[in-house]
Amino acid sequence: MGNSYAGQLKSTRFEEVLHNSIEASLRSNTLVPRPIFSQLYLEAEQQLSSLEGGSRVDNEEEEEEGEGGLEPSSPPNAYQLPPPPEGCCTTDGFCQAGKDLRLVSISNEPIEVPAGFLLVGAKSPSLPDHLLVCAVDKRFLPDDNGHNALLGFSGNCVGCGKKGFCYFTEFSNHINLKLTTQPKKQKHLKYYLVRNAQGALTKGPLICWKGSEFRSRQNSNTNSASLFPLLESSGSLAAFPGEPAPGMNSGVPVGAQLAGTASDHPSVTTATSPAVFNGKDSPKHPQLAKSSLSVLPRPSALGILPNSGPPKKRHKGWSPESKSTTDGGFPQGAGNRAKHEGTSMPCVPQPGLVGPASATFPLVASGEPVSVPDNLLKICKAKPVIFKGHGNFPYLCGNLNDVVISPLLYTCYQNSQSLSRAYEQHGASTMQPISEETQLLLTVYYLVQLAADQVPLMEDLEQIFLRSWRESHLTEIRQYQQAPPQPFPPATSATAPVTSAQLPWLAGLAASSCNDSVHVIECAYSLAEGLSEMFRLLIEGKLSKTNYVVIICACRNSTIDSCIAVTGKYQARILSESLLSPAEYQREVHYELVTGKVDSLGAFFSSLCPEGDIDILLDKFHQENQGHVSSSLTASSAKKTAVLDASGAPVCTSYHPEPRGVRPFQLAVAQKLLSHVCSIADSSTQNLDLGSFEKVDFLICIPPSEVTYQQTVCHVWHSGVLQELGLEKEPVTKQRAEQHVLKLDTEAQARFKAFLQNSFQNPHTLFVLIHDHAHWDLVSAVPNIYSQSDPSVGLVDRLLNCREVKEAPNIVTLHVTSFPYALQTQHTLISPYNEIHWPIAYSNGVDLYHESKKYFGLSEFIDSTLSGHSLPLLRYDSSFEAMVTALGKRFPRLHSAVIRTFVLVQHYAAAMMAVSGIPQMKNHTSVETLEITQNLLNSPKQCPCGHGLMVLLRVPCSPLAAVAYERLAHVRARLALEEHFEIILSHPSSGITVGNHFVKQLKMWQKIEDAEWRPQTYLELEGLPCILIFSGMDPHGESLPRSLRYCDLRLINSSCLARTSLEQELGLAAYFVSNDVPLEKGAKNEALESDGEKLSSTDEDEEAGTEGSTSEKRGPVKRERSHSHDSASSSLSSKASGSVLYGESLAQPSGPPQGELSRSPPPCGPAEEGRAPGEIQRLRVSQGPTVISRHSPGPAPQPDSSLRTSRRNLQMPAAPSSQLSSSSSSSSGSSSTCTVPTANVLVLQASQCSMAKACRQPPIVFLPKLVYDMLMSTDSSGLPKSTSLLPSPSVMWTSSFRPLLSKMMTSTEQSLYYRQWTVPRPSHMDYGNRAEGRVDGFHPRRLLLSGPPQIGKTGAYLQFLSILSRMLIRLTEVDVYDEEEINTSLQEESDWRYLQLTDPWPDLELFQKMPFDYTIHDPKYEDASLICSHHQSIKIEDRGTSRKPEDLYVRRQTARMRLSKYAAYNTYHHCEQCHQYMGIHPHYQLYESTLHAFAFSYSMLGEEIQLHFIIPKSKEHHFVFSQPGGQLESMRLPLVTDKSHEHIKSPTFTPTTGRHEHGLFNLYHAMDGANHLHVLVVKEYEMAIYKKYWPNHIMLVLPSIFNSAGVGAAHFLIKELCYHNLELERNRQEELGVKPQDIWPFIVISDDSCVMWNASDVECTGERSREFSWSERNVSLKHIMQHIEASPDITHYALIGMRKWSSKTRGHELQEPFSRCHVHDFIILNVDLTQNVQYNQNRFTCDDIDFNLRVHSAGLLLCRFNRFSVMKKQIAVGGHRSFHITSKVSDSSVAIVPSQYICAPDSKHTFLAAPAQLLLEKFLQYHSHRFFPLSLKNHGHPVLSVDCYLNLGPQISVCYVSSRPHSLNISCSDMTFSGLLLYLCDSFVGASFLKQFHFLKGATLCVICQDRNSLRQTVARLELEDEWQFRLRDEFQTANAKEDRPLFFLTGRHI
C-alpha cells in the first residue's frame, strides 16, 4: 500500500487506534499537549539515545530495502505497475484524465487549494527535470523537524480536480508516476511549492521527511546568505555537507556562509527570528497572520533534522543513536529559534555541521532538553551566540528566540583536520591531524588574548591551527617538500599531546589570567549540564564581565564534547547580526521602523536633553529667528573682497573645471588591453580573426544605478569615441550615447537581444561587450532552489554568459571591476593570461608614468594614517561608538544599524543647532560631527561664489536613509538653513533631486544656459555645499566630485564583512590629489582648512569663522571623551573668535605667531608630499604643538558618561594676543588658540575657496571602530587584516590551510592565489563551469580589467576602443608603392599612335607596327642605368646623384590604401571563406601533401635538373600521374579554345624567399573565388616553413644548388619547367586528338607583393577622338586575367604585363591603351614563343629588364595593358633584402662597403660570404665609374653592353645589342661608345661582330669571365688586343674564396 512500516510496533490495530485518537486534536488550531503517538515514539527514541550514547545512521541502502513495503527478511522483488484503465492518458507529466500537471506549464494558472491542503511538487523518475503539482492534506506531511506526519495519504489532483485519493499508490497511478518501486510519499513528494512576488508558482523548500534526501544537495546548500532573500527562499535549506564543504570557515563577522530563512510574515520579521511569533512580537490576530503568509501556509522549515523522519517506520538497523554522516543544516540566525505549531515542548535540533554523533543531538540521560530561560534577552541585554564545537550537542527548548546557534566553529575544526589528508594524498607519510583537545585549547588561548572591543574571527583561528600543526609536524613536512615520500612512519612528536582529562584543567588555567572575560565550565556527563549552568549564571548576572563561556565535557569514552558561547554584549550582538543575510538585515530594519519599535529611542534621546526635547528647542529657535538668517551665518558674499566678472557676478579664481583628456596611465592600460586582444588573435586557436573586421562597436553594461548610468553616458558622450569609431557623425547627441550604455534592469533583456541581433547581422564588425562593475550580481541564472522572484537576479549570467555571446566569433567580452576576486576562482571563465591589471605608478622609486595627479586609494589612506602624520585620513569616532554601545545594551532588541543611524542623525542635528546659535547642543554631539557640520556651513563663506564642500553620509539601508533625510531636512528647515546647504537623498534606482536655488548656483558655476538642465551625476554637484545621503546595499561605481571633503562611513554594516564589500565602501573616498602645487601658491594668504578645527563656540563674535576640516594642526589636547586614535583626528583646536587664522594669514607672515611653542614640527607625511616646500613649511609652522595619542586607548568610557559627556565651551580671551587659552566653564580640555588683530578680518574674508584645497588633499573618512581596527591591524604578512577576509560572499575557500596573501604579491600573483584557493558557491554563475585544471574551461574572447576604484578605468577602456578601431582600420590598410613613372620625358617622339582609345584588346597588325620603348619607366629602377635607343635625342639631362646603397627602400614613396574585397592576403588573414582555401578549416584535418620529383634535362646546364613538387591532396586534380599516387607525369594545361567563366587558364608561379608569413599568396579573394592553379616557388631550405604556413598551396622546390641563388634562377627554372611541361602536355593530349598549338602556352609569373589590381575606365568626351576622361576602380585579378586571356591572337604575344599603380598617373599615360615596352612584377609569359629566350639564372637584380631586352631582340612582342595596373605592397622583410653581404672572417665587425666587393687576384683581401654574381652586380651598380670613367654622365656616348643588361648606376647609360643572328638591334652606325661590357659572352660574339661598333679614344673595356683561363681565351678569340690595351694590374676578381668560384674581370683602354 505504500504506507506499511517494517519493524515498528507489532500491533497494526494499536496504530490505527492511536491514529484516530489524535487526529481530532491535530486538526484543532489551539495548542494542545503533544499527541500520544508522538510521545510514545519520541520518548522511546530519547531513552534509546541516552542508553546508546551514539547517533543515528542514515542508511540509504536500508531505506531502499524497506521501501518495498516488505519485512526486512522478505526477498526483494520488482514492483509491478497495475495496468492503467482502458483509454486513459498515460503521458508522463499528465494525469490519467489528460490534464497537464507539470509545474512549468501551470505555474501561472489559478489552482484551487482546499483548506488544510498544501501544494507540493512530486518527482517522476521518467521526468527528472520536471515537478508535478499535487495538492496534499498537510496533516500527512511532516513538520519542520521531520516528525508528526500522519500515516497514510490524502490528496487531490490539481489537473482534473478529482478529489479524495486516500492511498498514495492510487494517487501515483493517477498522475502517471510510473514507478518501478513501491510508491511511497516520502520518496516522491519532494518540495513545497510557493508563489513568488509575481504570483507564479515556484519550487520552494524541500519537504523534510528525513535527512537522506538532502545529501545530494549538500554542496549547493552552502550558499551565501545574501542570495537568500527572506521571502523567496521560504525555509531553511542549508543541509550542511557530510564532508564539510570547503569554505564554511570564513570569519564570523563575514556573513558568508549564511543559509537563508523564510519569514512567515514579511511585515513582522525580527532580526533574530524571522519566522517566530513569540512574546510581544507575535501578531495580535492569529487568523490575520495565517492569511498573510505569502510564502508558506505553515511555519517555515527552520530545521532539517536528518533521520527524524515520520515516526512510523523503523528499519531493522535504525537505532536513533547509530553513527550519522550528515547533519541537519539551519540558517545560522534562525534555525535554533523555530517554534512549531502543535508542540508544547519545541525540541529544535541545532544548526549542525558534520560530525560524529551530531545528527540527532542526543539528549542527556533524563531525556530533558536544555531550557532557555524566558527573560534571557531582557536580563543579559544581548542574545548569546552559541558555537557548536566538538561532539554531541543537546536539544534546546523554551525561549529559543533569545539564543543564536552557529556551526561555523565546528566547520573550522573539521577543516583544520584536512591538511594532513592533503599531504597523505601526495604520498607523504601519515601525519596525525591536530587533535580535538589541542584545537579547543588553542581556541581558549585565542579568546583569552582578545581585547574587550574585539570580535573573534574564524580566519584568525584557522591560521593559529595551521601554525600549530606545521610546528608539530615540521620534520615530516620538510621531508614531504624536499625528498620523495618514504615508506617509514613519522618520528613521534616531541611534545606530549594534551589528553582529554587534562583539557578542562589546562583551559581553566589559560582562562584564569584574563580577568574572567573567558569562563570555563566543565561538565561531568553532557553539555546539557554546562549549558543549563551557563543560562543560570547569565540570569543571575554572574557573567556580566564574561565575554566567552567555554563548556567542556571530557569524560565520555575519551572523546570530548564542547561548545563555546559568546556572552559579551558587544561581541554577541555583532556575531548574531553577522549571521543575517543582507535581505534579512533590510527586512529586520524595515520591520523595526514600521512597527514603531524605534520610538523608544526617540523618547530616550529627549530625556537626555536637559533643556527639553530637541524639537521644542528647534521650534523655539525658529520662532525667535523667523525671517532672519541664523546670526552666526550672516557673513554674506557681499562683504567679501571678490573678483567680479564682466556681468558683475563674483568669480572664484580657485575653481577650474577638471580638464578632459586621456592620462598616461589610461593610455598605457588601453595599449595593454589592445596587446591582449592581438595576442588572442595571433594565437593558433583561430578564436579571433581581427583581419575580418572592418569596424568596432560596443555596449557597456552597468548595474541598475541611475547615477552610474548617466555618468557612463556622459563619459561616452564627451570622450569622442563614437565619432572615432565612425558610429556617429558630428555632433553626437546624448541620446545617441545612451544607445551604447545598458542598465542591467528589468528592461535590459530586450535591448541586449537587439545587440545580439546586431552582432549576428554584422559579422564584419567587432563588438566589444564591456561589463563594468563586474563584481556585482554574480548570481547564477540556472534555476535552482535559490531561484529568486526578482527577474533582475542572475541577469548578468543570463545575458553575458548566454550561448550566443559565448559562441559569437565577433564579440569580445571585457569585464571591468575594482574588485575582481569573485571572478578569480578555480572555475573562472577568464584565462589568467587575459587579465589586465592597472599598472603601478612607481617601481624602485622611479615614477613610471608622469602624471600631474597622485591617486589616493585604500593603501594610501592606510599608509597616511600609520605614518605618524598629524593628519590621519581614516578615523573613527570613539564618543559615537561609546554611545552606540551603551544604547545597544539599553535596547537589545533593536538592530545596531537602527541605533547607529538614530545616534548619528541626532549628532548631526545637534551639531547643526550648535553651529546655528544653540550652543548648549554641543554637549549632545561628537567632536567629529561638529567639525564636519562647521566646515559644511562655513565653507561657502570662504568663496566669493559660494562654493562649498560635500559630506557623504553612507546609509546602506534605504528605509534608514529616508528617516535620516527627513530628520535632517526638518532640522535644517527649522534652523532656516535651506539656502546654506543642500541635503540630497540618493538611491541607486532613482536620480538626483536638487532644490531650484542650488540648481541655479550650479548652472551659474558651470556656465550652463539650458533652462531644463538638472544635475544627473554626483560629479555635476561639484562645489555644492551638501550632505549626500548615499543609500543602497552596495555602491555601484558612482564617482564623487572633487569637493567631497568628508566620507562618513560610520553606518556601514560592519558586522557582515567580506573583502569586496569593505573595499568598495572605502573606494567611495578614492581621490586624485594634485601632484604639482605651484610654489607661488605658498606665498598667498590662505586660510587652510585646519583653521576651522579650532572649536567654534558659535558666540556672536564668531560669525566670521572659517571652514575647517582636516586636522592638519593640533593644539595640545587632553580629552576624556575620545581616547585612542581619534583624539588626533577629532580633537578640535578651539577656534578664536573674530578671525582665527594661524601664521599664514597674519599681516606679517614672516615668522611663526608668538603663541607657538618651540616644538619641532612633525615629519612630513604622504599627504603633504604633493605640496610645494613653502607650503609644507607654512603648514608646519601653523601646526604648532601637537599631542597625538593614536594607538593608546585609555579606559573605556562608562555608558552613562559616554551618553552625557559635557562639552567644551571656549570663551575667547579679550586681549588680541596669541597665547594658549584654556577653556573655561564646562571645557574638559584645552586647545592652543591664536588670535590675531582685528585688522586682519578682511584677509580672512577673502580667504581661499574650499575647491582649491580639494585638489590638494583627499577626503577624511570616518569608519566604524570594528572596520577601523581591521584596516589598522596587520597580519603576519604585513597586509591589513581585511585582505585575509573571504574575498566575496559568493565564493568560498577551498581549504583553511592556505597561505596568507603576501605584501610583495603583484596583482597577477594575487589573482593566481585566489584562483588556487577559492571556488564559487553553487549560486555563483561560474559554479558549473568546469573541472578544476582544465584549460578549455576558459572562454577565449573574455578579458578582465581590474584597477583601484575611481582611478579612471572607464576612460581607459574607451581609449582602448579608439585604438582598437584605429588598429582594425590599419589592418585593413596597406602601404603600397606610390611613385610616378620615371624617364617619361625621354619617351621616343614617334608619329605613330595607337588610335583606337577604347579598344579592349590590342589589334595585332597595328601593334606590330608600334616601336619598342627601350626606356625603363618603373620607378623602382630609378637607380638603374638608362638604356639608349637611336630614337632618343642625344642630349639627355643629368639624372641626379645616385643614392646610398641602403636608401633605396627607405626613401621610396608609399600611400596607405584600404584593402578592397579583391585583395591578396598574407598568412594573417583567415576569414570564414578562406579557411578551406588556406587548409586551416576547423572541420578539415591539416591537409596532407605528397612530394613528387620531376626531372628534365637542359643542355645549357649540361645536366639533368630535378625539381620537387609538394602537392596537397586537394590539388592533385591539377596534375597527371602515371597511376593514383604514382609518378608525376605533367601539370594539366587547358586549351586555347576553353571558354570558362569560373576558371583561370594560366597557372600562376610566385617565386619567394624569406616571406612565409608576409608574402601575399592568398589569392582567394583576388581571384574572386575562381578556380586557379597557384604554385609557390621556394628554396629547398625554406620548404618546411612555407609548408607549415601554407599547407594547402602547391610548392615547387628548387634544387639545393640554388639555395643561395637570386630571383633569376627561379625565373629560369619556372620558364624551363613550363616549356618542358608544355611539350609533355602536347604529347599527352595529342593522343586524345588535340592539336599541339591548341594547348594553352601562357603562365603568370607574379611577385609575392602584388596586393591589388585596378582597371581604368576611359570615356571619349570631345568630338576629336583624343579627348577623354577616365576613372579607376579596383577589380579582381580574375577579371583582369579573363580579359587578357580572351584577347584575340593572344598566342602571338610573348610577354604581357600591366602598369604599376600610382596616384600621380596622368591622363596622357593612359592615352595609349597598350604599349610595347618593358613589363615588370606581374607578367603573363608565353613559354612557347620564348622557347629560345632564357632568363639568366645567375642574376640577382634587373633580371626582368635583361629578359625583356632579350625577348624584344628576338623579334617577339611585349605588350603592356595600360588600362590595368597592379599595386605592390611595401613588405619590409624578405625578397632581395634577404641577401646580406658579410665577411667570411667571423670576428670582423667592420661594415663592408661596395668598393670592397672586388679585389686583385691572389691578394690578401678579406673574402666575403656572398655569391660572386651578387658582388659583381652590386659593385657595378655603385662603382662602375672606376671601369668606365669616360661614360660618367656622358649619356651621348653610352657603354655598349653585348647580350646582357647590367646596371652600371644611374649616371652611366648603356646600349644593349644582341649578338644572335636575325636579332632586332638599334642602329649603332652613327653612335660612338664610351665603353664596352662583355659579360660571359658566348660563341655568337665574334671578333667581326665587335668590329662594327665605334669607340671613343680612351674608352674602356670590361671583360667578365668565370675564371682566369676563360678570360685569356676570350681576349684571344675576340682579338681584343688589336684595339684595346691591357695591363697586368687591370685584372680583378670578386672578393670570393676559390671554393666560391669568383668571377674575374679584365679592363683595358681603347687605343
What does this structure look like?
- By secondary structure, the protein is α/β, with parallel strands linked by helices.
- The chain contains 54 helices and 60 strands.
- Strands 38, 39, 42, 43, 44, 45, 46, 47, 48, 49, 50 and 51 form a 12-stranded mixed sheet that branches. Strands 36-56-55-57-58-60-59-53 form an 8-stranded mixed sheet.
- The longest helix is centred in the C-terminal third of the chain and has 24 residues.
- The termini are far apart.
Question: Which tags fit this structure?
Answer:
alpha/beta; 60 strands; disordered N terminus; 1951 residues; twelve-stranded mixed β-sheet; eight-stranded mixed β-sheet
Radius of gyration over alpha carbons?
A: 47 Å
Q: Main sheet, how many strands, which sense, barrel?
A: 12 strands, mixed
Strand content: 15-25%
Range of helix content:
25-40%
Number of strands: 60
- Give the end-to-end Cα distance, rounded to a whole number of Å: 133 Å
- Helix count equals 54
Unreliable stretches, pLDDT < 50, 5 or more residues? 1-13, 24-76, 211-367, 483-494, 630-641, 1077-1246, 1437-1449
Summarize the structure.
Helix content is 26%, strand content 16%. Residues 1-13, 24-76, 211-367, 483-494, 630-641, 1077-1246 and 1437-1449 have low confidence and may be disordered.
Topology:
Layout: H1 12-27, H2 36-52, H3 60-66, H4 103-106, E1 117-124, E2 127-137, E3 155-157, H5 168-174, H6 185-188, E4 189-195, E5 201-206, H7 230-233, H8 286-291, E6 370-372, H9 376-380, E7 385-388, E8 396-398, E9 404-406, H10 408-415, H11 418-425, H12 436-448, H13 458-472, H14 474-482, H15 503-511, E10 518-523, H16 527-540, E11 548-553, E12 561-566, H17 569-578, H18 582-594, H19 599-608, H20 614-624, E13 643-644, E14 650-651, H21 664-682, E15 695-702, H22 706-719, H23 721-724, H24 734-738, E16 741-743, H25 748-761, E17 765-772, H26 795-800, H27 803-807, E18 811-817, E19 835-837, E20 842-843, E21 846-847, E22 853-856, H28 858-866, E23 874-876, H29 878-890, H30 896-915, H31 927-938, E24 950-954, H32 958-974, E25 982-986, H33 996-1005, E26 1026-1030, E27 1044-1048, H34 1059-1066, E28 1071-1074, H35 1126-1130, H36 1166-1169, H37 1173-1183, H38 1199-1203, E29 1219-1222, E30 1230-1233, H39 1241-1245, H40 1250-1254, E31 1260-1263, H41 1265-1272, E32 1291-1293, H42 1307-1317, E33 1318-1320, E34 1342-1346, H43 1353-1371, E35 1373-1377, H44 1404-1408, E36 1426-1427, ...
Parallel strand pairs: 6-8, 7-9, 10-11, 15-16, 15-17, 17-18, 18-34, 19-34, 23-31, 24-26, 24-27, 25-26, 27-31, 36-56, 42-43, 42-45, 43-44, 48-51, 55-56, 55-57, 57-58
Antiparallel strand pairs: 1-2, 1-4, 2-3, 4-5, 7-12, 11-12, 13-14, 20-21, 22-28, 29-30, 32-33, 35-37, 38-39, 39-44, 40-41, 45-50, 46-47, 46-51, 48-50, 49-51, 52-54, 53-59, 58-60, 59-60
